[in-house]
Amino acid sequence: MSMQKSEHNGVVLVLLAAILYSLGGVCIKIIPWSSMSINSGRNLISLVVIGVYLWRMGHRPRFNPWIGLGALAICGTNTLFTMANKMTTAANAIVLQFTAPIFVLLLTALVWRKLPRRGELVACGVVVLGVLCFFVDSLQAGGMAGNVVALLSGFSYAGVFLLQDMPDCDPISSVFWGNVCSAVIGLPWLVAERSVTATSLVSLVVLGVFQVGLAYILLTMGLARTSAVTASLVSGIEPILNPILVALIYHETIGGMSLLGAVIVIGGVVGYNVWKTKADAAQAVPDKS
User: Fold this and answer.
1) What tens digit of pLDDT does each residue of 93-133 get?
2) Which residues contact 6 (CB under 8 A, 6 or more apart)?
3) Pick from 77, 154, 164, 165: which is nearest to 113 by CA?
4) Does the predicted TM-score (pTM) go above 0.70?
């Protein structure tokens, strides 16, 4: 039962992280800066949040090749997703990034030789169907270059969910160094920005504190308690909330197929977690024979 409770807590932590991640689309759209400037600024702020967390935990950032690989995934996800949001619609950017669960399954099978269970395959299929519904609506409005960048961010995002599975891993250290790289790469663009307004600064703080800093802390805590596949599927709430917030605040429209996709993705994620809870409970029952 304690393992099931830990798994449940992990799912909740990942869900909270996904909700915070969903703030990214609207805040990035609001700030009239280049994607590199925004990415650098938000990561500079997030480093303060993560630094305080590491200090309170008494955890000094480590580094080794695997932690560096995780940092590369973090940096790639941060940078590519911000670029995609400026190059295409927020719906395109987040939906195409959410191909991550498929890449997680492929990488898990190819690198760690862990074959997915039937329920995981079914859940991924349902999620992909929901994503395709978004794809039909949103792809029409965005540029192809932005869509390609968003798809690359999905591959990079898969690496984030695999942080806990890497040998000699330390996910929070990967997050720290990944954010350092993200901040440094975009620094020349950030210092060149001249259009600084109160709205831009508030949006940047929201991105840095909540959408990057706190969200990554919650995600690393959740990954320690649940599998990469589960975490990537639970994050299915993000491609739903992200374009909805952008539509409400930034007035990018959401079509009927996207709304249908929202229902399918949420249904797939909820159904997967119900199945997994029952399957894990059945597996935990001791053999009485």
Assistant:
1) 887 787 777 788 788 888 777 777 788 788 878 877 877 77
2) 225
3) 165
4) yes
